[in-house]
Amino acid sequence: MKKILLLTMFTFLYLAGVSYADTFELYSSGYQNGSNVSVALPNGQADTFAAYFKMNFSGVDYMGYCVDYGAVNWNTYYYNYSMIAIPDNKPQYKAAAWLLETYGGNSQTWGVNVQLAIWEVIFDYAENTHLITPYDGDFYLLVPPASSTYGAGSANLATVQGYVNEALAPHPDFNASSYRLLVSPNTEDYYGFDQQDFIIKTPEPGMFALLGIGLLGLVLVTRRKARS
Asked: What is the total count of domains within the chain?
């Protein structure tokens, strides 16, 4: 009976987006269509890696994008990461989820360009202009965005601009309930200071509900057979 209660509690907590903490690892061989690009951030100009990343949280593999400019070391375990639902009062993360949903893998250059668009809508969501004017807001690409040979993707400002414009348009029918943020400890407004934070897609909440019901039924049947 205790197992049933624990399973049911975990299912409902996950569906509600309640935070829990566990280990996190970023795979060095798991990125797709990424590249080094020259950008400017609040802490200065730098070359940074923009890509679609593979990561492991609590023993489960996910793919997703960075949502801030923190850093992690490849193939290193980090502790006390949390998985949380996208907050209703943070529309910039819903815009990032829309980009992940819409342009997950539609072209050879989607990885790096979607990542750059996500950074723009998150850092400069309230700005009047986006990428059109260099040095506007907290995040901007150096024009033209320099790209290295490291990685399979290539940065294209026009592509990024198009992604940003679409993401910032109204999408009243888009449901972001299957998206989560993986956030590091000591995080303020979900921007990591010492570690990296990510946006990922999980299976639809309805699938988790069905899975929980199925597992609960399996436990009940097993217990009934054991008693007979």
From this structure: 1
